[in-house]
Amino acid sequence: MSIEKLHVEVVKGINGLDKVVLRESRGSSAEIYMYGAHVTSWKNDNGEELLFVSNKAIFKPPKAIRGGIPICFPQFSSHGSLDQHGFARNRVWSIDSDPPPFPTSSASKAFVDLILKPSEDDLKIWPHSFEFRLRITLGPGGDLMMTSRIRNTNTDGKPFTFTFAYHTYFSVSDISEVRVEGLETLDYLDNLQNKERFTEQGDAITFESEVDKIYLSTPTKIAILDHEKKRTYVIRKDGLPDAVVWNPWDKRAKAIVDLGDDEYKHMLCVEAAAVEKPITLKPGEEWRGRQEISTVPSSYCSGQLDPRKVLGS
Ligand code: TA6
């Protein structure tokens, strides 16, 4: 295998769909379907899968893939007139062979640039010209970085407005044993209570029933502590003030056709997002939203994981 192919390769995935495989020398890897620019796998140096993808996921357009990292654009959830989560997750993206330069170039050779432009049909449901460029990079330490650059290319002089999320499904050993740190005491909109606004109480976020909340004005760093795996996911984000936390729990999981009845136990969505304050771009303007996810081993400290060690670093 050539050096380039070792780091970036386009192969056929499920149902003959094209996917890009990124590999780093130490053994980590990531897989991205061109359908949706959808990250469906992110593995560490030991080959352990870090993202949840349902056993019942349907890899067939127009259904979005259940799990991994769907891109929600130009609409998050039902916050608008488009179908749930917009259309970027169920369009076939292209390789962007000549992307405009990034201000900082990464040391990694394992990256891919993808682009989505609206089709004639897209313009009928969302009448705005745009260029959505997405760079996905696997860092030398196995961290996964995603940078979205969205530009208004309207020639009619009109601005457009959108909401956005990286709808990341993290793989967890047991949802009941997981804590999220960094969102405590923040305000959130509760999707299970007519999107009403509440303030989070208590120390950390733990899970014992369905959760579907949009935390507002969140810090740039959030941690998911998986006690059983002794693993902590760290999410760093930029340009994305909100953080959505979702787990469907047992009843709702049963109503989702492409999710196994018990699979909710092994997934947690923590989604870097811009929802409460939609983004408006004038023609020629560009928005940038970035998420970086990584893992650190976490150990017990008098019976509890010590989040300060994680969030303080
Ligand atoms: O991000 C949370 C959410 O908007 C939930 O309300 C839930 O419906 C979930 O996304 C999954 O949406 P999907 O359209 O992929 O079934």
From TrEMBL:
What GO biological process term is on the record, naming one? carbohydrate metabolic process
GO CC terms in record: cytoplasm
In this protein, the active site sits at H167, E271
Any idea which UniProt keywords this protein has? Isomerase
- Short name of any one Pfam family annotated for the protein: Aldose_epim
Q: Which GO terms describe its molecular function?
A: carbohydrate binding; glucose-6-phosphate 1-epimerase activity
Q: Which residues does substrate bind?
A: R66, Q84, R89
* Keyword Cell division attached: no
Catalytic activity from the UniProt record: alpha-D-glucose 6-phosphate = beta-D-glucose 6-phosphate
Q: Which domain of life is it from?
A: Eukaryota
Assigned EC number: 5.1.3.15
Q: Which SUPFAM superfamilies match?
A: Galactose mutarotase-like
UniProt cross-references to PANTHER family, sorted A to Z: APOSPORY-ASSOCIATED PROTEIN C-RELATED, GLUCOSE-6-PHOSPHATE 1-EPIMERASE
Which family would the database say this protein is a member of? Belongs to the glucose-6-phosphate 1-epimerase family.
What is the name attached to this protein's record? glucose-6-phosphate 1-epimerase
The organism's lineage is: Eukaryota, Viridiplantae, Streptophyta, Embryophyta, Tracheophyta
